[in-house]
Amino acid sequence: MITSVMPTYARAPLSFIKGEGSWLIDENSQKYLDMGAGIAVNILGHAHPDLVKALHNQAENLWHTSNLYNVPNQKKLADVLVSETFADTVFFTNSGTESMECAIKMARKFHFEKGMPERNKIITFEGSFHGRSIGMISAAGSEKLTKGFGPLLPGFVQIPFGDHDALMSAIDETVAAILIEPIQGEGGILPVPDQCLKGLRDCCDQKGILLIFDEIQCGMGRTGKLFAHEWAGVEPDIMAIAKGIGGGFPLGACLATLEAAECMTAGTHGSTYGGNPLATAVGLEVMKRVNTTEFLKNVNYLAINFRQSLEALVANHPKIFKSVRGSGLMLGIECVIPNIDVVNAGYDCKILTVPGGANVIRLLPALNISLNELKEATTRLSASASKLEASL
User: Fold this and answer.
1) Please, how many CA atoms are within 13 Å of residue 377, restricted to the half-sphere of its CB?
2) What whole-number distance in Å separates Cα of residue 386 and Cα of residue 392?
3) In the predicted model, what is the mean pLDDT of residues 231-238?
4) Is residue 231 a contact partner of residue 89, using CB atoms and an 8 Å limit?
5) Residue 327, φ and ψ in degrees, nearest 5
6) What band does 86 get if pLDDT is binned at 50, 70 and 90?
7) Domains assigned to the chain
8) Cα of 82 vs its chain's centroid, Å
9) Is residue 148 exposed (0-12), middle (13-18) or buried (19+ Cβ within 10 Å)?
10) For residues 308 and 137, what is the distance between their CA atoms, to the nearest angstrom?
């Protein structure tokens, strides 16, 4: 027997029918404080009126044309992204995985066009997550993602996270690019130190290889800047984004410099739905709300207060929690007991968190969450911990 919905997810026994800001309401009218935001997707919360209006207005006029024709909203959103980032050009997708696939193709084509087809290897890092296509599980390489799906695609070299010597040893004349998440999300909320990102940029410049950032989870204001790499003062050649850019509507993008993208001419890549009128209408509205000094300043204010309360939470429940890590409103709490037990205990206290690698629970709330709601989150996490302590 198999269910009509393929059972590829270990789903929680919850069904939500309505969302309001940072709250989800289930079929029994119970309200849950959502500290996962669809895994860093709903950055303006659920049913934000401006996003609803943007989608409704576009839906009344035009849903889809394909990329056989110009898409006005797509051009407007690309112009905004180019003006606010390192990039000179943008390819729109439906998801983070697709954005990463575009990035890998571009890196290899870049060197091919320069007469160096042997430069096709991509260096990646253990604990990374770039999506679930065959290409992207080959990139990450972990057994959790790859077991049973072989043969994997060649051309990827995984090295230990944070191992400088292993990185230097892996670089040779066959390397096309280095791919890294400025903060590993799925891997357990592991930030890459600023000096390491700077070192990667210098290394790529010296070796003539491309630097690719995966900001699918850590981008779009989550760390208090529009993109996480801005804290280090470095720029990539190519960057994949998704999740928050659509505020809950499927949208992703691959951003690139002119030099990196010159090889991507007509026919080299494509997407039927990528950047369609509906998705880009919502993306424009998201950028309008998120990409302001006031909004990002408030993210930093909330993050400082929330982290302080989480540090106190850890200190008060040492049998459950070990440490806090992360940046901005992309935070993780390393657990002493199995993290899934903490996630499950949260359901009884009506709070939703996301499990991650390294026995971490991820806290990825809407970026416009209120300070009072963050205090309520800490209270509910504390109640969850107390309940778990009573059962030890």
Assistant:
1) 30
2) 10
3) 98
4) no
5) -150, 145
6) very high
7) 16-34+293-391 (3.90.1150.10), 50-290 (3.40.640.10)
8) 19
9) exposed
10) 36
Q: What pLDDT, on a 0 to 100 scale, did the predictor assign at position 362?
A: 98
Angle at CA of residue 183, ends 359 and 178, nearest 5°: 120
- The per-residue b/e assignment along 331-363, b for 16 or more CB within 10 angstroms, e otherwise, is bbbbbbbebebbbbbbeebbbbbbbbbebbbbb
Q: Which residues contact 150 (CB under 8 A, 6 or more apart)?
A: none
Residues 156-184 have a mean pLDDT of: 96
Q: Is 213 helix (H, G, I), strand (E, B) or coil?
A: strand
Residue with tokens 């934000």: 48
**What's residue 164's pLDDT?**
92
Q: Which of the 8 DSSP states describes residue 101?
A: H
Here the tokens at position 19 are: 């969302």
Q: Residue 253: is it exposed, middle or buried by C-beta count within 10 angstroms (0-12/13-18/19+)?
A: buried
- Tell me what percent of the residues of the chain surpass a pLDDT of 70: 100
Provide the token pair at 20: 């309001």
Tokens of 59: 């839906």
* pLDDT band, very low/low/confident/very high, at 80 (cuts 50, 70, 90): very high
The token duo for 323 is 């440490």
Range 330-356 average pLDDT: 98
Residues 6+ apart with CB under 8 A from 276: 63, 64, 65, 66, 71, 74
Give one DSSP letter per residue of 224-250, joined into a string: SSSSGGGGGT---SEEEE-GGGGTTS-
DSSP characters over 317-345: -TTTEEEEEEETTEEEEEESS-HHHHHHH
The pTM of the full predicted model, rounded to 2 decimals, is: 0.97
Mutual angle of helices 293-316 and 277-290, in 10-degree steps: 80
The two structure tokens encoding residue 140: 């990450």
Q: 371 near 305, Cβ under 8 Å?
A: yes
- pLDDT band for 149, please (50, 70, 90 cuts): very high
pLDDT for res 127: 96
Q: Nearest Cα to 313, choosing from 357, 352, 361, 359?
A: 361
Can you give the C-alpha Rg of the chain in angstroms? Answer: 21
Kind and range of the H or E run holding 134: helix 134-140
User: Cβ atoms within 10 A of the Cβ of 226, count?
Assistant: 21
